[in-house]
Each structure stands twice: as C-alpha cells, then as structure tokens.
Amino acid sequence: MNWQALELTLRLSCLTAAILIVLALPVAYWVAYSRRRWKFLVQALASLPLVMPPTVLGFYVLVAFGSSSPLGRLWQHWTGHTLAFTFAGLVVGSVFYSFPFAVQPLVNSFLAIDPKLIDASRVLGASRLATFFRVILPLSASGVATAIALTFAHTFGEFGVVLMVGGDIPGVTRTISIDVFDQVQAGNYAAANVTSLVLLAVSFLILAAIYAWNRRAWPRAPWA
Amino acid sequence: MNWQALELTLRLSCLTAAILIVLALPVAYWVAYSRRRWKFLVQALASLPLVMPPTVLGFYVLVAFGSSSPLGRLWQHWTGHTLAFTFAGLVVGSVFYSFPFAVQPLVNSFLAIDPKLIDASRVLGASRLATFFRVILPLSASGVATAIALTFAHTFGEFGVVLMVGGDIPGVTRTISIDVFDQVQAGNYAAANVTSLVLLAVSFLILAAIYAWNRRAWPRAPWA
Amino acid sequence: MGVREGRTLSSADDERETARNEILLEAAIRKRYAGSPGSSFSLDVRFAVPAGFTILFGRSGAGKTTTLEAIAGLVKPDAGKILLEERLVYDSASRVNVDVSHRGVGYVFQDSALFPHLTVERNIRYGLRGVPEIERKKRVGEILESFRIGALALRLPRVISAGERQRVALARSLVTRPDILLLDEPLAALDAPAKSRIVEDLRAWNRVRRIPILYVTHSREEVFALGERVLVIERGRIVAEGLPQDVLEAPREETVAQLAGFENIFDARIAALHEEAGTMTCLLNPGAIEIEAPLARVETGAAVRVGIRAGDVLLATEPPRGLSARNVIEGTIEAIEERDFRVLARVNCGATFAVLLTPAARRSLGLAAGQRVWLIVKTHSCHLLRPAAQD
Amino acid sequence: MGVREGRTLSSADDERETARNEILLEAAIRKRYAGSPGSSFSLDVRFAVPAGFTILFGRSGAGKTTTLEAIAGLVKPDAGKILLEERLVYDSASRVNVDVSHRGVGYVFQDSALFPHLTVERNIRYGLRGVPEIERKKRVGEILESFRIGALALRLPRVISAGERQRVALARSLVTRPDILLLDEPLAALDAPAKSRIVEDLRAWNRVRRIPILYVTHSREEVFALGERVLVIERGRIVAEGLPQDVLEAPREETVAQLAGFENIFDARIAALHEEAGTMTCLLNPGAIEIEAPLARVETGAAVRVGIRAGDVLLATEPPRGLSARNVIEGTIEAIEERDFRVLARVNCGATFAVLLTPAARRSLGLAAGQRVWLIVKTHSCHLLRPAAQD
Amino acid sequence: ARASGQITIAAAADLDGALHALIGRFEGQTGAEVRLVLGSSGNLTVQIEHGAPFDLFFSADVAHAAKLERENLIVPGSLVRYAVGRLVVYVPKDSSLDFGKRGLAALADPSVRRIAIANPRFAPYGQAAVAALRHANLYESLEPRLVLGEDVSQTTQFVVSGNAQAALTALSLMFAPATRSRGRYWVVPQSDYPPIEQAAVIVGRSREKSLAHKFLEFIGTKEGRAIFQRYGFATPEKRQ
Ligand SMILES: Nc1ncnc2c1ncn2[C@@H]1O[C@H](COP(=O)(O)OP(=O)(O)OP(=O)(O)O)[C@@H](O)[C@H]1O
Ligand SMILES: Nc1ncnc2c1ncn2[C@@H]1O[C@H](COP(=O)(O)OP(=O)(O)OP(=O)(O)O)[C@@H](O)[C@H]1O
Ligand SMILES: [Mg+2]
Ligand SMILES: [Mg+2]
Predict the structure, then answer these.
(1) D117 and chain A: CB distance < 8 Å anywhere?
(2) What pTM was estimated for this model as a whole?
(3) How far does the centroid of ligand 4 lie from the alpha carbon of residue C159, in Å?
(4) Based on the number of CB atoms within 10 Å of its own CB, is E66 exposed (0-12), middle (13-18) or buried (19 or more)?
C-alpha cells in the first residue's frame, strides 16, 4: 500500500475541492441571479470540461502549460519551471476538470431559495455580499455539500488529467489513482485490489462525513 | 472525422442519461424523503463510483462482466456473447460510473421543495406516486436538467471505463472519446484537434439545449 | 352517501335540524411538541362536530392549526382517535392511521400553499383527477366565476396578490367536494366585500352539502357571520364550546371574554346572595359600585371577576325612571370617540366603563366629554368569569 | 436627524401638529404588469405621507403590495419619483435608483418571510449588524418582551405558529429603527387581544419616533384604531385620501362606500334642488321613497346613487315627533339578527334598509320581525356616490 | 469483391503506423477485412483474459504474450517474435543537445530539466530506457529529472507539448508528421539495452484462426519485414 500516494491524493482532493468552492460560488451566483437571457450558454460552457476525454483534456492542458504557450512561459518565468510535473499543475488541471461539478449544484441551490428571503435581507440593510453570506449560503448547505462531495470524489478518482499533466513522479504527482492504475498495468492484481479497497474505504468515510454534516445543517425536510 | 464514433457516442450518452434518470429518481426520492438516520451512508455509497480511477473501475467491471465471472457467464448463456465488448456492456458500465451525478442533484431539488406543497397535494387526494409526478418532479426541473446534463456530458467524455469494458471495437464500442484518444496517441494532433472541436461543439449544443429548456421550465427566480 | 344525497332534496330547514344532531366528525387528539428550546406545547382536545360551520376560535399559538393538521392526517397525534362520518381514520389504540389522501378532507392552509408551477386554473383542477372532463370544466368554471378569479385563470400563483391566492386556495379545496372541510383562516387576507361575498357563497354551498366545516378564525365578525357552533381553544385545551352567542356573549372563562371582546372586566367581591330573587350583589373594584348579577354558586365574600359587554350598557342623559333594569350607575363621560361606525364612550363611575353606541344615538343625545350620564346595565348582562390562566 | 431628535422632547400634541405638515414620504409611481395572461394590471399613484400612521386601504388586488414594494425598492417602477425624508431614492427622469439596503426602510411582508435557518432571536438580530452588542442585546430583549415572543427566542420559524411568525416579523423590522415603516397586513393572523396590544405598542412607539408608517389593511377596525390618515386605492389608482372619518364615513366613490361598509346603496333620481335650504330631494329605487340629501352639483332628473350607513339610521317604534331630522320613513321589520354584538335589522319601506342597533336598544324597544317601525335619517347621513367602475 | 472473412487485431500503440501499412497490403491481397484495435499491452492482455473478441494480439513485448500462452488462451505454438523495437532520444527541434558527439551523456546538460520515459514498471520501452541510462552511468544522476508516461506515446507528447526537454521513446513513433515536425531524434545504439522483442499470438477464442495464421505468415514475408523496418523496427534474430 502506497501511503505516500494516498496522502498526496487526499491533499490534492481537499485543495481542489476548497479552491473549486471558492471559484464556483461567484460563478454560480452569477448564473443563478443574472438576468441575462444568454446565461444558459454560460451554464453549458461551464459543463464543457466534462465532455472531453480526460487524457485528451490532459493533453491540451499540457500544451497550454508547455514552454511553447504564453501561459507556460509566463509561469516558467516566475517559478523557473513548467507547471507540468508539479503538484501545482495537478491542482490546476483538477480544478479545471472538476469545475462543472462545483457550479451546477450551487446554481440549483441558489435558485431554490425563496426570493422573498433575499428581499427581506436587503430591506433589513444587508448588502448583497452580506446577504450572500448570511442568507443565501447557509440556505444552500445541501448544494455546497454536494459540490464538495462531487468535486472531492471526482478529483480523488481523477486519472486522465493527472496522468497527462503529472508525469507520475513519486511524492509529487503520483496519486493513488495512478498508483492503482500502474499496478493493474503491471499485472499486480492483488496489490491493485488492496489499494482499491483502501481508496474506497477512505473516500467512503470522507463522503459520509460530508453528507452527515449536511444532514445536521438546518433540516428543511418534513421529517426533521 | 469519425462520424460513426460520434453517432455511437451520442447514442450511448442519450441512452445512459435516460436510464440513469429512471434509476436515479427512486433512489433520490428515498434519500430525500426517508426518515432513516443512516441514509447519509447511502448517499456516500452512491457517490463511490466516482472515486475509483475510471480505468481501474473499468478493470473491475470487466472482471465482473468477463467470461470468467458468474455474471458474465450467465449473460453469455442468454445472449451468446459476453457483456463486455458490446454496446450493452458500455451502457451498463457508463450507467454505473455516472450514477452519482444523477442522484445528488435530484436529492437536492427534492429537498428544496416546500413540504407544505406535498401536504397540499396529498390532502387533495393525490397518492404518493401522483404527488411525485404532478408536484415533486415538475418542481425539480432544474435538478432533472442538471442530472441529465451532467450524466450526458460525463458519458460523452467517458473514457476509462469505456476503453476497458468496450475494447475499442470500431462501430460497436469505439466512442468518440476513444477515437480522439487514439488520434493523440498516434500523434495525429491535427485530426485530434478537429475531432475535439466537433466533440465540443456537439456537446455544447446539447448542453445549451438542456439548460435552455430548464430556463423555460417554470422560472422561480426573482427576475423571471 | 345515499343518505346525504337524499337529504339535499328535503327542505333546507328540516334538514338543518336533523343534521344538527348527527355528529360527522369526532376527535380526541393528544400531541406534544417537546424538545424545542423555550416552552413546549401540548395539545389535548376532544370534541364532536356536526354538519355545518363550527368555528375554532383561539388566540395565536393556541393549537388551532395543529388540531386541523391532526384531523387531516398531516401530523400524527401521540395518542387519540379520530372518526370521520363514522369511519375510523386514526386510532392510536388499534394503530389505525388512514393515509391523508384517503381521508376525504378538504384543507385550506393558513398560507395558501398553491402549486407554484401550475396556473390558477390547473391548481383548482388538481384535485379533480377522476372526474370526467365535462364535469370538471363545469365545476372549475363555476368556482372561478363565483370567487371572481376567472381573470386570473391562466396566471401563475407568483404573479397574483395575496388575497387572490387565498381565494384560489379556497376554490381548490371546495371544488373537490370533500366530506369534511378544514379551513385555517381562509379569509384573513381578504377585504370586507370579498369576505362577505365568499362567506355567503360558503353558507349557500353548505346548505346543500351539509358537511362539517371546521373553520379557524380570529375575527369575531366571522364567528357570528358563519358560526353555528364555536369551539374555543386555549393553550391546547378546549375551554368553551357551544353556540356563538352562548360562548362569546356569556363567557365563563376570562380568556374567552377577552377574545370575545368583553370590554369591561372588573375585580369584584360578592356582597350578598338573594336566593329568592335569583340575583346576588357584587361590589366592583374598590367597592365603589354595587351591581346586581345573576345568582351563581359562590360564597358571600368570594373574590370574582365580572365581565360586561360595552354594547350591553345603555346610556341616558337623564336619570331613567320606571325601568326594569336593576343597575343604574351615575357617572361622567371621560372620553368619547368614533371607531369604525361605532361610538365608544368611557364613563367614569368610580371605575371606568366602556359603552358602545351608534353614531346616530350619540348625535341625538348630543353626547360629549365631561357630560353627566347614567349607565343602565341589565342583571343578565353581568357575567361572572373564571380568572385567566397566568400568561 | 438633529431636528427629529429634538422634537421628541417637545410635548406629544404640539409635535403631532408640526409633524402633520411635514411630508416625509413623497411618491409618484407608475408600474404596469403586462403580458400576463388574463387582464393586465397597472398602478399609477401619487401621494405624500407625513409622520404618523397612514393606512393604505383597498380591496384584494388593488395594488397595495405593489406600492409598498416600489417604495422599498423591491420592485422597479416603470416611471416615477420617490422621496424619503427629502432624499431622492428613485427618479426615472434622472435615473436615480438607491439600493434597497440603503433606503432605511422597515418592511413587514404579507407573508412573514422569516429566515428559516435562523432562530427567532437571530432573525430579530439580523438587521442590527452595526449596533454594539450591549445595545443590541437590550433592544432585542425589549422587543421580545413587548411582543410576548420571548419563549420562542431559540426556536426556528418552522416550528412556531402563523401568528407567532407575524409577531417575529414585525419585531424584526421595528428593532432596526427604520426611517420609514411599510407594513403589509402585519396583524392579519393575530387574535383581537394580541392585535390591540401590538397596535397600542406601535402607537406608543411612533409617538416617540414620529416616522411615516404606511400600513396596509383590510380591517376597518384597524383603520380607526391606527389611522391618522387613509389612502384608498382601487385598481391601481388612489381614489380617496384624508382622515378616516372623512374618507370612510363620507365616501364619494361607490367602491370606497362598499369597502367602508355602506350597507345601504340605492339607485336614485334627483327630483328637486332646494338651493336656499342646501338640500335636494332624491327618489330612491322605483320612486317609492323620497329622501332629502345635502345639495350637490347635479341636474334635476340625473341618475345618482345614494349611500346610507346602517349605523346612521335611527329606529323608533312610534312615529317620532318634534325631531330635526327631515327624513322619516315608515316600514316593517323584515328580519332582525345579532351579529358580533351588533343587531342588524332589515326594514322594508318599499326598498329594504339595513339598520344597525345595539343589543341593548333592541331589547329596550322589544324589536321583532313583522313590527311596524319608523326610520329616521339625517340629511347629512345621505351620501351621493359616483358609480363604481365596471367589475 | 473476394470477401473472405474478417479479423480483429489488437495491437500495442507503437505499432500503429506499421500495422496500418501492413493491413492495407494484406487486405488488398486477400480481400479479407481487418479491424485494428490499439491499446496498451497490459490493457489488451486483461481484455483477452476476459473474453475480448480479438483474433490476433501484437504485444509490445514478449512477456504479455507469454503470459497468455501460459494461461492457455492462445492457439498453441502461435507465438511469434515479429519485430524488435528501437529506442531513440527525442528532443525539441530547437534543442542544442548534440547526441552525435556525446551520446546519452548529452542528457546531463543542465538545460534538460525533465526527461520523459515510459513507466518502467510495465512498459518495455521504459525498461529499455532505464537500462540504457544505467549503461551510460547516468541513471543515478538523472533519476530526479525523470517523468513517467503511461506509454511511449505519452512520453513523446511530453516533449511535443514543450514540457520535457527530452524523451526516451520508440523509433516507430518518429514517423508521425506532428512528431517529426516538432522535434528530432537520435537512435540509441542497440547494444546499450536488452533487445525490445515484440511477440504476437493468435487468440485461442478466435473464429478466424486460418485467416489469423495467414496474417501472421504475411508479416513474416519479405514484404512484411520491409514494412516493419520502414516503421523503425529491427528484424528479430532467429532463435528457436
Ligand atoms: N409580478 C406580477 N406580475 C403580474 N401581475 C402581478 C404581479 N404581482 C401582482 N400582480 C397583479 O397586480 C395586482 C395588484 O397586486 P398587489 O399584490 O399589489 O395587490 P394587493 O393590493 O396587495 O392585494 P392583496 O390585498 O390581495 O394582497 C393584482 O391583480 C395582481 O394579480
Ligand atoms: N413543529 C412544531 N414543533 C414544535 N412546536 C410547534 C410546532 N408547530 C407548532 N408549534 C407550537 O405549538 C403551538 C401551537 O401552534 P399552532 O400552529 O397550532 O397554533 P395556532 O393556534 O394555529 O396559532 P396561529 O393563530 O398563530 O396560527 C405554538 O405555540 C407553536 O409554537
Ligand atoms: Mg395557525
Ligand atoms: Mg398584498
């Protein structure tokens, strides 16, 4: 069992989920509350990272990160090395790839909030921002939980992008998903089984914790 | 441009999304409305297909479907061939893999419905089932749209499971994602770019259609 | 069923008499809302409801909504028994609990609870699933017409006003022709003309249907306009029950008195009992005023409270002569003001009395503050009250 | 601000007089809800509101909520101008549109709109963000106490009753001490004692604050209990404006008359004008009854409508003698019934008149159906009405 | 047309170019229809183990083919070594490294921050790359700079996309136009690493065994070998 890979993966997943929540909140807010007629196009666009096969997506990310792209050169100029083959690169790739899973549940939760409550908050003198943090966000607990759970799980199992962008460097970019993939490729099925089980167990615990937390958040359901 | 692969992928994605909605509705209903305290465990369990690297998941699905498994043999007994390496096998694998994306948005939408409306429907003589179809489901339009969009997109870009279970057989299991992957592998970047663009364009149109439909469904937002 | 259909053919008055005696809803409900921070609430009521309007009257938080919800099956009682038209729909002992959708109950929620995705018309059609299309069209058309919401038929609930929503909610329940109707303040958001029109409709409707209607309201006007019977509920208990005039005009409980608008409530002490005359003498407040009240089971010297409705007090500008009334109290008008077509005078006679007059009477008597007047209170207008529970 | 603080030190009555003249809210609002299936609605109002209570009175769907929403900034008018305390908060011409949260408005919604995830206490604290903790504790404690919702402080809105929710919503707005208060039927779900207690609190509160309060209600009782001024709104237009007694007791518009409870409205024809006496003779209904009404700008022979309040009609059991009233009409009691401590008699004199009496008067006159009576109507109790717009 | 059956060939990804050419010829000669499925040798082996409907399997090594033989999943005796892969160093076009002069030691240049190789845990070219580096005594010093690709294709992509400055990869991939246009390569001497022998087998479940045999025979012909050579493979030494 490759504990280093597990720890790396946990770090990657948590970081990605955290970044995604932060990035997705304003986007979801815009999608939910904008009056633009074409916002459904933005929604569709935000779902697009999903439709690319991950390895192909990874390839394009690799090209975008590479020394022949402006972005890659800029990063290289700042940090001295390319974004590919670094943990930071993995994070960027994963964030990009899991973006749709963060945005859509939040949009749905925002839309489900009674507009009267937002009016009430505004009339009580709360700014848009304060209303967001004191009313909209708490009332979207289940959307936030879902966004976290899905992005966390998706990154945890993410493979194609990580494989392409990471270069499988032990301790830096060799995640548990790559590790178990390697084991299968090498025909070490027994080791792969063990790793898979650990992977499932760990993620089950984390997901259960997320959903349990969400259950404890104010319950709106009739039975609560 | 491999139109056969595109057509195959569209067929797979639509079929998978359709099956998933049907499967996910009762599960989501149970999760949303059950009073069991341990239902968060079911929620976590339903998210687990996500955390396995797709190729590894594909490997296990292959093992489960293959000629050496009881399930595979049973299927072989009935149909004369293994479930793996057929279109049906792809559908089963994709359904399994995208399951979490279908369940969770629906659960959230169900939970956001004012319980009073369900009471109102029941008092008006509607059975649980009628209430589901006449009140809960229409009010969950955005959850349904999200579930369809996410499962559709996810299956469209799905690669690991399809590669393992399908075996990349042209016209049967070679989806567009595998096709573009093959092109990248072979260094045909120009062809890969074309295929990727078509892939993006087609899925963008479909996703936009889904979200536009959702926008037209009764609008709950303050601006509508 | 056959019996009720037949009954609609007989004359309305005969029918009312027979229906009065026939109990169509019987309920014994215990329900405790515990565990909530702050005080907990427990409901424990037992009552029987015949056909016709029965008003559930009580202050905010008394348990009215909870009672209706238990009858409808939306809230499960902790214990009890509910019979609708002799059908057992809930019984904690025998574990009977008929599903909401099979109780044949019409329920109008305190908030209208319209389906937001359906137009007004489709909301109203909602409960008419099994009804043939022609009949359905007819019924919906009729009720849209009679509630004056036809113009809203194609609108979504989101874009109509609160009073309009309430009318739609009422129409949605009535159109299904339920076996029992539970109305939780269905007219609270309506203006007087709309209210009285709908009240008239409801009365007419129920003259034909003769089903039990349990009607929650705070409005005394509605009690008298609709109520054939009143149940007064207070802190989860039924504290009074009977005809509106009996319960609200001769209340035994001080809370009922307050709810019923007994403007004059005094601390009093029993000075003497006159068994032969059927009266007793009470000393109001510091003993300044002596009042004759109907005889009751109390001891001489007991501390009681006496309630007198402001509308029962007659006012004269000269000492009245040759009157049957035993209580004539001299006083001075402290203040006089017009409220809602009624004139309220405050008269100081040692204690302050509120007296209700018509504006016409005020003018003809030329009443003004500072004027010397005589109050005339009939013995039977003085009501002995049990003290209110601590608030 | 300094001016208003100082004013609270002067005597309440002086202050009311000065405040009356100072307009603190001025609004001209045009808003059209078009495109909805069925009829469309357009609001076009212009009014000024001084400190104190101003009642917005009108039937369901008249546009009351829409008006409040426009003032608060929750709905953007199509055109118009809104000034709060001389501050321009909306002006379509100069494209000013101050954000809701900066208008300093307190708003109680028709449905209470409490935050479902916050306890009662936290709901009330919501608007007190910038206030120091000690002050905040004090204010919240006081208002919990005065609205009798202290026991609910730690509960979630989901588990309290509708009337309790309404009190919390009102507390939540008041506690922020807004510069203007918009109340959309804030007491509709409350019982009479709770209502009058809160009304008393509100009046006391505003004696100190002297801010403009725009109060929507359907209840005539509330109009008279609270209203210093009334605005009557009908189909999106202000149709009457002034003191409660002026507007509701002497209405010019038939719709106002209906809302104000003019029980007697008759078709009439002008028979003669008596310039010197300041009166005119009207023939009611088929011409069976002759009535003297105050002179108005009409032609002889014109078709008009005449409204008479049931409470303005005096009733005698003998032909009255030596009275100043010009109109004495003989008739027979058709029906007599008690409603909410008032007795309503229907008297047939060719046309049917509704007459309102106190129960005491009924008893002393021994009134019963079939009895011969005389109705006495003062000239100034007969109101000429403009016909209602088509419904 | 002389329709005479259809076979499906599963082949390692580095055979893409060579097999396409071979199949074109073979189809022209026999009228048979050949479907080509590319993948990693590991994946294809797993799939054959679980009943994949392949007739022929061209592995990128001998081990996977031998594994199937041990499991009795192939037509007995059908295992043939059909080619030997050649290792190259692939660098971007503008690279200043001079392999002609310094051999693999040129990789030690500090401008080479990342060197891509296929994963030696399962990819034969990866194992060959490690062997070649060890042979040049560079493995210890260069190991921190290594990044691993899943297979040779991905290894090559690391250089094509500009993220790695060099890749040790297969000569057979150097014929794709995109690869050729963006970089140049240097063939590592065959003596520096054990030969990358590649073996093919006929799958036991095949229903077109005779046609599969025919195809195997065809690649053994002079014409077949020439094609393999043209696509960067050496001819295996005869050993029996
Ligand atoms: N968003 C909207 N779109 C279209 N029409 C609307 C909208 N909101 C309200 N209306 C219509 O405008 C009219 C006025 O509505 P408003 O809510 O102001 O009435 P109201 O006087 O408050 O009535 P109520 O006493 O019933 O609350 C109503 O006829 C209503 O149907
Ligand atoms: N789900 C609940 N959990 C705990 N307490 C509750 C719950 N629902 C209601 N209560 C409490 O029970 C009491 C009775 O509530 P109910 O809604 O029956 O009152 P009500 O008579 O309908 O009052 P109102 O006239 O204000 O609507 C209230 O004090 C309320 O706070
Ligand atoms: Mg209630
Ligand atoms: Mg309103």
Answers:
(1) yes
(2) 0.82
(3) 11
(4) middle
> What distance in Å separates the CA atoms of residue C131 and residue C129, rounded to the nearest whole number?
6
Q: Which of E148, E155, E160 to mutate to test the interface with A (most CBs of A within 10 A)?
A: E148
pLDDT in tens, E81-107: 999 999 999 999 888 888 888 889 999
Backbone phi, psi, residue C40, to 5°: -100, 165
For D204, phi then psi, to 5°, come to -60, -45
Ligand minimally distant from the alpha carbon of residue D161:
2
Give the CATH H-level superfamily of domain D24-258: P-loop containing nucleotide triphosphate hydrolases (3.40.50.300)
* Cβ atoms of D87 and D95 closer than 8 Å: no
CB of C43 within 8 Å of a chain D CB? The answer is no
CA gap B14, B19 in Å, rounded: 9
- Cross-chain Cβ contact E150/A82 below 8 Å: no
Residue D313: closest C-alpha in chain C: C360
Which one of 3.40.140.10, 3.30.230.10, 1.10.3720.10, 1.10.10.10 gives the CATH number of domain B3-33+41-220? 1.10.3720.10
B56 interface with E at CB cutoff 8 Å = no
Q: Which amino acid is at A26?
A: P
CA E108/CA E141 separation, integer angstroms: 8
What are the residue ranges of CATH 3.40.50.300 in chain D?
Answer: 24-258
Task: Provide the strand spans (E) within C275-313.
Answer: 279-284, 289-294, 303-308
E91 DSSP β-pair partners: E184
Query: CATH for C259-385, among 2.170.150.40, 3.10.20.30, 2.40.50.100, 1.10.40.30?
Result: 2.40.50.100
Interatomic CA distance for residues E90 and E180, integer angstroms: 10
Please report the DSSP string for A96-110 in residue order. Answer: HHHHHHHHHHHHHHH
Q: Which of E126, E100, E123, E107 is nearest to E165 (CA)?
A: E107
CATH 2.40.50.100 residue ranges for chain C: 259-385
Please name the residues in contact with E8: beta carbons below 8 A apart, sequence gap of 6 or more: B169, E34, E35, E36, E37, E53, E54, E55, E56
Task: Supply the DSSP symbol for C309.
Answer: -
pLDDT tens, residue by residue, C360-389? 667 777 788 888 888 877 777 777 776 544
In the predicted structure, residue D78 carries a pLDDT above the cut 80: yes
